[in-house]
From TrEMBL:
GO terms for molecular function: hydrolase activity. The lineage of its organism: Bacteria, Pseudomonadati, Bacteroidota, Chitinophagia, Chitinophagales. Residues 40-243 form the 3-keto-alpha-glucoside-1,2-lyase/3-keto-2-hydroxy-glucal hydratase domain. Keywords: Signal. InterPro entries: AL/BT2_dom. This is DUF1080 domain-containing protein. Pfam families: 3keto-disac_hyd. It comes from the Bacteria. Residues 1-16 form the signal peptide.
Amino acid sequence: MLKRFCLLLLVSGAIACSSSKNTTSTPSLNTLTKAEKKDGWKLLFDGTTKAGWHIFNNRTDGSAWKVEDGALYYDPAARGPKGEGSGELITTDSFENFHLKVEWKLTEGGNSGIIFLAREDLKYKYAYITGPEMQIIDNDKHPDAKNIKHRAGDLYDFITATPENVRPIGEWNQVEIVLNKGKLDLYQNGAKIVSTTMWDDNWAAMKAQSKFKNTPDFSAFHKGHIVLQDHGNKVFFRNIKVKEL
């Protein structure tokens, strides 16, 4: 009887230790570690509210953008018949040289994007005509993904992401945008997938071959806002953080 009791204690202790390890190894959502805070990282999404964000040019109240289970997401079902509640979600703050980290996931057939260096001004109808975009899309089910420069991770309409390492629909993808004095690098799920330099002759040549060739203010600004695109599809974001360089 004593041996059985001791064995039960050992098993219970092992389970408790295992449970404790699993709990401590799971990273907290929408938080910063002490090391990140010391290194200058700041949260752009607190996990519970839309503080620090608004709709581009305040066109609507943004009610179709919601927060649930630690994720910020666009709900097309909440969009009014005339677009009420919808629109591109833009940061209050603007950034020049920065390192941005974001996690995103899509529902089937979805499309969205992360726009940066966007200029907010009433003369612009949409943010995407002012700032470059890291594409978010269902490569298999959305028709726009047939364009080789419109696939997940691409520098939209400029550069194809290599390798193409987007995860299956419904899974979270980890992406990063690093811009420092014109040097631009995009990362997806741990791999560098795009590397270029903005505003040089090669950039001008790429723009001249893109859909933005007749959009003079596209990528013209060296400082601007970060934007989460409303493309009419359900898309989720979390762990949005930035470090100014």
